[in-house]
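1st attempt posting a full record on here, be nice pls
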Amino acid sequence: MTYLQDLETNLKALPKAEIKDAMLYYEQYFYEGHLSDGQAVAEFGTPKNLARRLVADYYMDEARDIPEENQKSPLGLAKIITLALLASPILIPVAITVVALIFAIVVTFAALAFSIVVTLGALGFAAVLGIVGGIFILTQSLLGGLFYISAGISVIGGLILLCPAVTAMVKG
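the predicted structure (as tokens):
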């Protein structure tokens, strides 16, 4: 078998068009350079080694032809990182713990905001009841009635002062 026949036999990993182009190139090279099989081995190495280099070069060129955006997509990278993290048996319980902790913190702050609003509502209701009760007590004791009315008005004044701060805190 000649050098070119061995080369063609070893290029089976390439598409037929590429084999045809490579063989045409090397046939012309051998013809123009008047190379014998021994000189070809000295210049290019064995046909098998030359075929390996040609196949590797072809597929390296194919890899370079892939658009850069397809190779390094941020979404694809995020997906790969997420899958890698979820595949880890150690990180799954840690992730569950972190999610549960975040959920607990959110629920705690929501409960705190709700309790503050309910407390202020109860104080407002108690202030109104104090004023109404003070009006009814006025008939029995002037000082007692005035005390309850003034206490109710003071609580309402305190609520008026606290409402903007509480509203800002609840809204975040």
